[in-house]
Amino acid sequence: MYRQGIPSSKIALDTGAPSSTVRYRLHLAGRDDPTLRDARKAALRAVTRKTSAGQRNLDDIIAFHKAEGRPPTTGGQAPRKRHWVLGCTAAGRTPQ
Predict the structure, then answer these.
(1) Euclidean distance between the first and final Cα of the chain, in Å?
(2) Phi and psi dihedrals of 94, rounded to 5?
(3) Where are the alpha helices (DSSP H) in 1-96?
(4) Cβ distance 4 to 26 under 8 Å?
(5) What is the pLDDT along the chain (96 residues), one digit of tens a residue?
(6) How far apart are CA 24 and CA 30, in angstroms?
(7) Could you tell me which residues come within 8 angstroms of residue 22 by beta carbon, excluding any fewer than 6 positions away?
(8) What residues does each domain of the chain span?
(9) Is 0.85 topped by the overall pTM?
C-alpha cells in the first residue's frame, strides 16, 4: 500500500493498526528493501503548484501593489481597492 503512494496514516486507519506500528513496520521494510521509498515517490502524482486562477490572482495583487504602493487588505474598509478592482473589471479582467 505504501509503495502505491498511500500515506501511513491511511494504512493505519484501513488496517486498524496503530499508526506508530505502521510507521515502525515501514521503517523496517524500507531498511530491508531500499527501493520502497523510491517506488512510493514514483507512484505519487505530481502536484500542480500554480494554477491559472492563482497566477491571475498573483498578477492582480502585484498590479495593485504597483499602483497603490501597498499590498491589498482583506477587510472591506478599503474603498480605493474597490475602485481599483472595478477598474480592472471595466478593463475586462476579473480580479480574484
Answers:
(1) 39
(2) -110, 105
(3) 8-15, 19-32, 36-43, 52-68, 79-90
(4) no
(5) 888 888 999 999 999 999 999 999 999 999 999 899 888 888 887 666 778 888 888 888 888 889 888 887 766 555 555 555 555 555 555 554
(6) 10
(7) 8, 11, 12, 15
(8) 2-43, 52-90
(9) no
